[in-house]
Amino acid sequence: MEIFEEGHPICDEKPGGPQPPASHHAAEVPRQRAECATERYGLLLIPGKNVGGPPLSNEASDMVRIDLTRALFEELQAKIEFIHNAADLISQMQDDCIRAFQKAMPSCQDWTPLFPFEVLLDLFARTTAQILYGEELAGRDDWLVHTIYPFIHHLMLAPPAVVSGYHPSLRFLAKYFETHTKMVYKGRKQAEDILRPILDKYKMQRAMPGEKNGHGDGIRWLLERYDSLGKELTPELLAQDLLFITVAAIQTSAAVGCSILFDMMDQPASLSHIRAEISAIKEACRGNWNRQSLAQLRFLDSFMKESKRVNTFTQGTCSFLITMVFDRFGSRVTVTVQRMVVVPYRFDDGLQIPAGTQLSFPNQQLNLDDDVYPDAGAFKADRFLKKRMEDDPNRHHFASVSEDSITWGSGYHACPGRFLAQDTLKLLFIYLLDEFEFKHVKDGQTRPKDMYHGFAVGPDITMPILSRRRGLERSR
Ligand code: HEM
């Protein structure tokens, strides 16, 4: 069925989720036993406890995986079931996206230099703020601009400062002396203070029958999750969960968006095709985007996925020593699906691995393997569009996870926010490409080389580009 076709989590994966692409298929270890593994290795983009990085809780992960995804698909489901007046999340996001552009995008009356990563970070954060933090917080600069952004900034700078400046046995002291680490702890406290009265309001509303409107938001969903487990959601836990999700969501999405934009700039023919597709679907939906119309942007979707394949983004981490050696000798190994075996495990073919073994799967190498993707080195914008037509329309879209596509991870812990990332990035591109044009600072310049760090790789976010509002040339 057409509306069921694209990006539906039910169609997307087989029950139990896809397995890691290896000859040895490890079944996921039971969830409660896997927890300690995922805390250390599941999402290593959040640096560890010595710098005050918020840990991942099951409640936070499930909130994104279940409640947020359900809200995203509610509108689509309602169409299938002919239910009217369903909460329309994409339409709310579209309004937020328009407001985000007014706040975060320079007016660009002439060619204006900007850092695409920074602009996309701000746009993404503002477009998703209402979903993640609710209406009241979303509009407050003391939250987004003065708490969240500095928190992310210091959280990224703290680990190298602590690792290079402190002997492992003394790292617990960093929170008293190291500047960025102190700021991370301060940021958590600041978030807690802002959240305290807001959480009280949610708790009061919870007690009033009939007070719940709309699809909800991150705070309400978290409160309901903690309630259902008989646990008390304190301001401290709320701050920890929201900060974790924020760091997992915003930086990654901005980096991937920046990488896709670089590829679009290098491929004018594809860019024209994408613009034409946006304009045709926009006309059909009269500019009121919903999940179905976003899903009809098939060429854009294919381009985004091909961009993520050829220019892999991954945040795999490794020890300081390995990072130093890799960075020194320019090694190009990037990994994802980082796990630690918590109980001895025997694969189907007899291979046995002891508890404590660390596993991860090569990401870029898989993406650039000619046996997996014929002519893998070539950027073919319609590669995944053709695969969908020839193979299966329900697979091969940007947010899909499969044996041959593990940039979102794999199995139970595969990124639960990927549908939100997919839809938000599409909304941002609709406005960016419709209203602005882009070029490199120097003539003849192309996509800057990606930056490797340890097991991670991503676009060069230090590279400025020029942007100008479209149509100005004609109107002069
Ligand atoms: C383009 C943007 C994004 C990329 C590339 C990305 C990538 C990833 C990857 C590779 C993982 C680890 C998966 C695994 O180990 O199997 C992950 C986990 C996670 N991501 Fe994302 N992510 C993105 C956006 C988001 C967004 C928007 C959210 C929240 C709204 C989010 C929330 C999470 C959470 C909570 C986890 C931990 C899941 C768990 O361990 O159970 N991510 N992400």
Tally of helical runs? 20
Ligands, deduplicated: protoporphyrin IX containing FE
Beta strand %? 5-15%
Please name the fourth-level CATH homologous superfamily. Cytochrome P450
Q: Briefly, what CATH class?
A: Mainly Alpha
Keywords: Heme, Iron, Metal-binding, Monooxygenase, Oxidoreductase
Family: Belongs to the cytochrome P450 family.
Biased composition (Basic and acidic residues): 1-15
Organism: Xylaria bambusicola
Provide a descriptive summary of the structure in words.
Residues 1-28 are annotated as: Disordered. Keywords: Heme, Iron, Metal-binding, Monooxygenase, Oxidoreductase. It comes from Xylaria bambusicola. Its cofactor is heme. Pfam families: p450 (PF00067). With 476 residues, this protein is mainly α. It has one domain (2-23, 45-475): Cytochrome P450 (Cytochrome p450, Orthogonal Bundle). The chain contains 20 helices and 10 strands. It has helices at 2-5, 9-12, 31-42, 58-80, 89-104, 116-133, 135-138, 141-165, 174-177, 179-207, 218-228, 235-266, 268-284, 291-295, 298-310, 320-329, 364-367, 383-390, 418-435, 472-475, and strands at residues 112-114, 314-315, 335-340, 345-346, 352-353, 358-362, 436-440, 451-453, 456-458, 465-469. The strands form 4 sheets. A 3-stranded antiparallel sheet has the order 1-10-7. A 3-stranded antiparallel sheet has the order 2-9-8. A hairpin with a 2-residue loop joins strand 8 (451-453) and strand 9 (456-458). Helix 4 (58-80) packs across helix 12 (235-266) and helix 5 (89-104) packs across helix 19 (418-435). The longest helix has 32 residues, at 235-266. It is globular and about 55 Å long. Residues 1-47 have low confidence and may be disordered. Residues 38, 42-43, 56, 60-61, 64, 245, 248-249, 252-253, 256, 313, 336-337, 408-410, 413-418, 420-421 line the site of protoporphyrin IX containing FE (HEM). Protoporphyrin IX containing FE binds next to helix 3, helix 4, helix 12, strand 3 and helix 19.
